[in-house]
Specification:
This protein is an alpha/beta fold. About 60% of the residues lie in helices and about 10% in strands. The strands form three sheets. Strands 6-7-8-9 form a four-stranded mixed sheet, with helices on both faces. A three-stranded mixed sheet has the order 1-3-4. Strands 2-5 form a two-stranded antiparallel ribbon. It is rod-shaped. It starts with a helix and ends with a helix.
C-alpha cells in the first residue's frame, strides 16, 4: 500500500511539473502576443499618420490642380484674344499695304497726270536709235535735263492741300526742266508723236511776275509758310506761289483784296481763289486733281505699314510667349 501511495505521489508530482512547464510556456506565449500586439498598434498608428498626411497632400494637390485649371482657362482665353488681335492687325496691315501698292503703282505710272506728262515721264531712253518699246524713246541728253514734276517738289500739311491745288491748277502737273532748250525739245517730242500737251518750267530762266509798284503781300499770311519745298527748287516755289496769301474764308479774301491793292493772289483753305485781276474761281473740292492728297496718302500708308509691322512683331512675340506658357 505504501508503494501504491508512493507511485501516486510521483505521478502527481510529475503532473504538477508538466503543468508548471505548460503554464510557463503559456506565460511566454502571452508575453510574445502582447509584444506583437503593441508592435502592430505602433505600426497602425504610424500608418494612420501617413494616411492622414497623404490625404492632406491629395487635398493640397487637388486645390493646386483646380487653381492651375482656372489659370489655364484664363491663359487660354487671353491667348485666343491675342490670336484674334494678331489676325486683326494682319488684316489691317494687308488692307493698308494693298491700298498702298495700288496707289504707288498709279503714281509710278503717272496715272493722275495728263497724257503729255505721262508721255514724257514714261518715255524710254533711245540709246542706240532703235525702237525698243511701243512708246517713242527720248535721247539721254533730253532725259537727263528733265528734273522733277511740280507736284513732287511740294510737301504740305493736308489742311492746305486744297488751297495749293486750287492756286496751282494745271501747273501742279508741269514738268520742271533744266533750261528752255529742254522744254522746247520736249514740246517738239509731244508734237511729233501726237502724245498730248504739258507745261514745262525751265529752272534756269523762270522769273517772278513784274511788280506794279504796290506793296508786296504781308509775309505772315503767305501760303508758302505752310509748304515744305524740296531742296534746290525754292526758286520755282517762289515764282509759282510767292505772291499767294492764305485766308480762312472768301469774305476775308475779298476784304483783303479790296483793302491793300497789292499785286497778289488770294486763296482760302477751301480752294476759292481771287486772281491778280480780281477774278473769282471756286466750287467743289472734289473737282480738283487731288494729286497732293494722293501723294500724302501714299506717305501715310507707308508710315502706317511701318507701325503695323512693329505692332505685329511685338504681338507675335507676346502670342509665342503665351503659347509657350
Amino acid at each position: 500500500q505504501e508503494a501504491q501511495y508512493k507511485n501516486i505521489y510521483q505521478n502527481a508530482a510529475s503532473s504538477k511539473e508538466s503543468l508548471q512547464r505548460r503554464l510557463k510556456r503559456a506565460d511566454e506565449e502571452e508575453a510574445l502576443a502582447q509584444s506583437q500586439i503593441k508592435a502592430f498598434q505602433t505600426k497602425e498608428s504610424r500608418v494612420r499618420e501617413q494616411l492622414e498626411t497623404l490625404k492632406a497632400e491629395i487635398e493640397k494637390l487637388t486645390g493646386q490642380i483646380t487653381a492651375t485649371q482656372n489659370l489655364l482657362d484664363q491663359k487660354s482665353s487671353a491667348l485666343a484674344q491675342q490670336v484674334k488681335h494678331v489676325q486683326t492687325l494682319e488684316l489691317e496691315r494687308n488692307t493698308a499695304k494693298s491700298k498702298y501698292t495700288t496707289l504707288k503703282k498709279m503714281e509710278d505710272n503717272f496715272e493722275w497726270y495728263r497724257d503729255g506728262v505721262r508721255a514724257i515721264m514714261k518715255a524710254p531712253r533711245d540709246t542706240d536709235g532703235e525702237q525698243a518699246s511701243e512708246i517713242p524713246g527720248i535721247s539721254p541728253a533730253l532725259a537727263d535735263n528733265i528734273l522733277e514734276l511740280m507736284a513732287d517738289i511740294i510737301e504740305a500739311d493736308p489742311a492746305y492741300e486744297t488751297a495749293i491745288e486750287a492756286v496751282l491748277g494745271e501747273s501742279l502737273q508741269y514738268i520742271i526742266v533744266k533750261d528752255q532748250e529742254t522744254g522746247i525739245r520736249a514740246i517738239d517730242y509731244l508734237q511729233i508723236h501726237s502724245a498730248g500737251r504739258s507745261g514745262f518750267i525751265p529752272i534756269a530762266s523762270v522769273k517772278p511776275a513784274p511788280s506794279d509798284g504796290s506793296s508786296p503781300p504781308p509775309s505772315a499770311g503767305l501760303l508758302l509758310n505752310h509748304i515744305k519745298v524740296k531742296a534746290g527748287y525754292e526758286k520755282i516755289a517762289q515764282v509759282t506761289l510767292g505772291d499767294v496769301v492764305l485766308t480762312e474764308t472768301i469774305d476775308e479774301a475779298i476784304a483783303l483784296f479790296n483793302k491793300n491793292g497789292a499785286l497778289q493772289r488770294i486763296v482760302t483753305r477751301n480752294g476759292d481763289v481771287i486772281s491778280h485781276q480780281g477774278i473769282l474761281v471756286g466750287g467743289s473740292k472734289d473737282k480738283l486733281s487731288g494729286i497732293l492728297a494722293k501723294k500724302n496718302e501714299i506717305k501715310e500708308l507707308k508710315r502706317q505699314d511701318g507701325i503695323f509691322a512693329q505692332k505685329l512683331e511685338k504681338s507675335r512675340i507676346e502670342q509665342h510667349d503665351m503659347e509657350s506658357e
